[in-house]
Amino acid sequence: MRNKILNKIQKKNKQEKHQDIYCTQCGEKLDDFCFSEDVKNLKAVKKHHEECKKVKRFKGDYCSRIFIAESVNEGKTKKRK
């Protein structure tokens, strides 16, 4: 009985473990990018994207880092009612 309970707890813990999210193009970690200081500097994010294109890591349609940075910065510039 004790083993069944422990197995259920271990199984639940494995399911709840957070898995990191990485950019499929450049391999950079994206999990907390929207909360980092880097997201505020859109120019630097775009420069990073240009480097990805230059070394042929980027083959997609739209850079996820730029998407996140633009979304976060857009939210800051909107006027609140």
Describe the 3D structure:
This protein has one domain. It is built from 3 helices and no strands. The longest helix has 15 residues, at 2-16. It is mostly helical. Helices cover 52% and strands 0% of the residues.
Major beta sheet summary: none
N/C terminus separation: 57 Å
> How many discrete structural domains?
1
- The H-and-E topology, N to C, reads as HHH
Task: Say how many strands there are.
Answer: 0
Alpha-beta classification: mainly alpha
What value does the average pLDDT take? 77
Report the portion of residues in β strands: under 5%
In DSSP terms, counting alpha (H) and pi (I) runs of 4 or more, how many helices?
A: 3
Residue runs with pLDDT of under 50 for 5 or more positions:
none
What is the CA-atom radius of gyration, in angstroms? 19 Å
- The portion of residues assigned to helices is 40-55%
What overall form do the CA principal axes indicate?
elongated
Write a brief caption for the model.
By secondary structure, this protein is an all-alpha fold.
Which features does this protein show?
about 80 residues; mainly alpha; 3 helices
Q: How would you summarize the topology of this molecule?
A:
Blueprint: H1 2-16, H2 42-54, H3 64-77
